[in-house]
Amino acid sequence: MAPTDQHDQLVLSIYDAALDPGKWPELLTRIARYAGGIGAMIFEVETPGDQPHLLASHFSDTYQIDLVEGYLNQHNDLEIADQAVFARHSRASDDIQLIPDSVLAASEAELLARPNQKTMMEYGIRYRCGALLNKDQLFHDRFSMQFGSDASEDLPQRLARASRLLPHIAKALSIGRPLQAVQKRHDTVLNALDKLDVGFCVLDKRMNVIAGNEEFRRQSEESGVFRRDPQGKLSFRSDDDLNRARALLGNPKQHGRFGARPRKEALEAVHQSDSHNGDALCIDISPLHQADDIGNEALDGYLLMSTDTSRTYRLEMPTIAALFDLSEAECAVFELMAEGKTNKQIAEERGRSLDTVNSQVKSILSKSNCGNRTQAIRMATNISSGFLVRD
């Protein structure tokens, strides 16, 4: 899995940040320089008390935190409005598109006269762009890159270069969300893994299991999808599952194919047990290159996250309903789906016909842009922190 060029090196470093979010500041500086920019930022729009404001979760280590926070506080309303414009110009598809700041004003003179633009220019920032890294939750995982006046002649080429990396950033943020949630409560990733209701496993490049949490071990024993063999290697029981997993192992170019909806890249493997009625594991795999939080030496290998859709997950239905415009009946059905129940079981519990429930499930999948129930539950748990075990 040796990186072949600067792009591949950055891709592998991006996935390392899924395991160790402390890598983002230095990494964002490298990404910006690769694209000919000054710096880059990952942020989200928070709405406490219906008063939206921007929160920069990660930004280039060349930026001073007091200056970033001061700028966002000073120009919050303008920035919120600008982000709405960037979002409107993003494609409705899974693709991630970097939108230049030329969309923010009718003319260059009008753009340069704006108060937030004047402040940025005091620090050498002439151009900026924005992108949605998460099209399930439009307020999460926004991306911005800033450029100097030297980008005047070739800005489209610089944006295109940066855009090649954005699907990988989106996937790393998605996979890393459960780890970051428990890391806030515990000292290290390894100490926190058993606090997750999703399986996590760290592999070296020979697929030896270096670390795995309690849920991973349970899935190994009960699902019949994969197991740790006597030599300590991860093996898949189905040749088809193994071949699909191999497609994601070792080649960075196999990752980031679904842009702002990386959950679609996950491997779906059906339980071997007849008692699970077609329930599946949703398995995300990402490469690691210099993972430092695992042991004494940096690890070159893989990170595997597995969501068992036969388990019961706690969903934040008001949030999900608002995101996807679900009806009250669809919310009730979705909650039962998250309990691992089949359409027939849902129909019996709700006193509805199977055709009605089938239609409601189809509507849920369409509204949430999911191909099947497995994708929907994987997406919903990631949105609602349903991957966390109650402390």
Structure description:
The protein is α+β, with helices and mostly antiparallel strands and 391 residues long. Strand 8 (226-228) and strand 9 form a beta hairpin. The chain has helices spanning 6-19, 24-34, 65-74, 76-89, 108-112, 115-122, 155-163, 166-183, 189-192, 214-222, 239-248, 317-324, 328-337, 343-350, 354-367, 373-384, and strands at residues 39-46, 53-59, 99-100, 127-132, 142-147, 199-204, 209-212, 226-228, 234-236, 267-270, 280-291, 299-308. Helix 1 (6-19) packs parallel to helix 8 (166-183), helix 13 crosses helix 15 and helix 14 (343-350) packs across helix 15 (354-367). It has a five-stranded antiparallel β-sheet. The model has no long low-confidence stretch (mean pLDDT 88). InterPro entries: Sig_transdc_resp-reg_C-effctor, Tscrpt_reg_LuxR_C, WH-like_DNA-bd_sf.
